[in-house]
Amino acid sequence: MSDVIEEKDKILSFTLFKIEKGREKICKCNPPHYEIDPINRIVTCVDCGATLDAFDALMSLYQHMDKYREYQEKALEKCKLYGEWADEEWRRRMKNKAFKDMDKQYQSGMLPHCPKCGEIFEPMEIENWTNKKYVKSDSVADE
Question: What is the model's pTM?
Answer without folding.
Answer: 0.43
